């Protein structure tokens, strides 16, 4: 059994948390949140994978089917993630218009 996908997921999570915590630029923080979301999506898709399974379409003499619910929920999460990312970027643009900078230290 290979665990490469879980290793990549952990690396992406740690990288994104490092970006979110240490970077002061709001755009880079949004990119870190986006990378973290991608790692969570990969994690859930990896959990829903069953080796040698078929899509849930009735086929005679076959009994191992994969459940489509986790994959459908991840498609919904992708849409929500894109919407929140775009709202975050629009807020960053408004902050830049008002203050002239998008660094976090300048406002606190």
Automatic annotation (TrEMBL):
TM stretches of this protein: 6-21, 33-50, 70-93
Subcellular location: Cell membrane
Annotated keywords: Cell membrane, Membrane, Transmembrane, Transmembrane helix
Cellular component GO terms, alphabetical: plasma membrane
Mode of membrane association: Multi-pass membrane protein
Organism the protein comes from: Candidatus Wolbachia massiliensis
Subcellular location, principal: membrane
The protein's name in its UniProt record: Cation:proton antiporter subunit C
Family: Belongs to the CPA3 antiporters (TC 2.A.63) subunit C family.
InterPro entries assigned to the protein according to its UniProt record, in alphabetical order: CPA3_antiporter_subunitC, NUOK/Mnh_C1-like
Source taxon at top rank: Bacteria
